[in-house]
Amino acid sequence: MRAAMTTAAGIAKYLTPLPSTASLFSYHLALHVKPGARRGSGFAAVPQRAVDDCVALCVSAPPVEGRANEGLAAFLEESLQQQLRAMQVAIGAHRGNQQREEALRRYLEGTSFTAIMEESKSKAQGSSNNPTDHTSTMKANKKKASKKKGEDPSPTSAGGQNPPPVDFATLTALPLFRATSGAAADGAAPKVSVTLVKGQTSRTKVVLLEVPLPQELLVPLIEKMAKEDV
């Protein structure tokens, strides 16, 4: 995959978290699809002003004419699944929390992962120091959700509340990483689903991503995909 944005703000700007479960996270991702990638398909290396409200994505010609949307979804599913599989094996090979944390840092080295975790830590400290502010934010989100019935306030989780800050213990305990090295090597591939929800006949599209990763891991994973294939 020839991919992505160079900062967390880059990709996170176009990613909208949706109500999710403990093991499967859902997002809307805005894309601007362009034909004619130099080496197959992949995200544009840098954001482009012409498509500032979307992630630019270069797509090679689909294998069957007239089925570009199916090819786009299949490409994204396969690329994300391969990356998830590699990360699953790398982290699942370790048992202790400290070892898994170090393995996660190494695997996502060179991305904005460390900065994301520092920001999450600061938010957690702020919430504990200002419980009144946290309650006010929750009420405000619920009020917005009631006004926009049928729409997904961004970025929120189920119930219209802000997603809670995530720490390393939470990340390394994800179901994706529960397997040992042997099980990770032989088990089923991580579940990934990509569905086009808007823009069937337009280059500007919105896809529904369902992956076993919270945003704190999905954003740097896409950045890693970019760096590996530039």
TrEMBL record:
<comment type="similarity">
    <text>Belongs to the UPF0235 family.</text>
</comment>
<dbReference type="Pfam" id="PF02594">
    <property type="entry name" value="DUF167"/>
</dbReference>
<dbReference type="GO" id="GO:0005737">
    <property type="term" value="C:cytoplasm"/>
</dbReference>
<dbReference type="InterPro" id="IPR003746">
    <property type="entry name" value="DUF167"/>
</dbReference>
<feature type="compositionally biased region" description="Polar residues">
    <location>
        <begin position="123"/>
        <end position="138"/>
    </location>
</feature>
<feature type="region of interest" description="Disordered">
    <location>
        <begin position="119"/>
        <end position="167"/>
    </location>
</feature>
<protein>
    <submittedName>
        <fullName>Uncharacterized protein</fullName>
    </submittedName>
</protein>
<dbReference type="InterPro" id="IPR036591">
    <property type="entry name" value="YggU-like_sf"/>
</dbReference>
